[in-house]
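This section describes the prediction task in plain terms. A model, or a person checking by hand, is given the sequence of a single protein chain and must write out its three-dimensional structure as a string of tokens. No templates, partner chains or ligands are provided. The sample shown here is typical of the held-out split.
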Amino acid sequence: MNRVGVFCASSDRMDNIYYEEALKLGKWIGENKKTLVYGGANCGLMETLAKTVHENGGTVYGIVPQVLVRNDRVSDYIDINFRCENLTDRKEFLESESDVLVVMPGGIGTLDEMFTVMASNTIGTGGKKLILWNINHFWDSLLSLFNDLEKKNVVNKSLDSLFVCVDSFEELCSLL
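The expected answer:
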């Protein structure tokens, strides 16, 4: 798995622990000569990852929707820039250009990306390994919701078959 797709926050206002973990992942990707595939923004965990991968010898694929270009929000650490029209195109590129997908803490966009991959995996059109990285229990409430959905029999596949949840950087690396 050489191309690691990462869904994560563009927020610059998160707790430091999330940036610290992004630095670890970026360093690991770079030092292992892997490729980061991400959304191309120059802010938040996205920029932390791209900069760290770039500075540690990895390659950075930025999947850049036109809105980032218009708003001057494109990272300077992108080695290969994939331009796309909108967020729907971005999700398709992120999934197709990645060998594995990691979900770090993030907001609505991150959830949208994750749910799109999960839905594809549910109906059998996906097939990418999806890893939910539960840094500092960030995703606990979402995991609780997922458990509730399973109990209510509204999901057609076991959620364990749609993604793997890890709590530590070491667990994440063992799957990459």
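For orientation: The chain has a mean pLDDT of 95.
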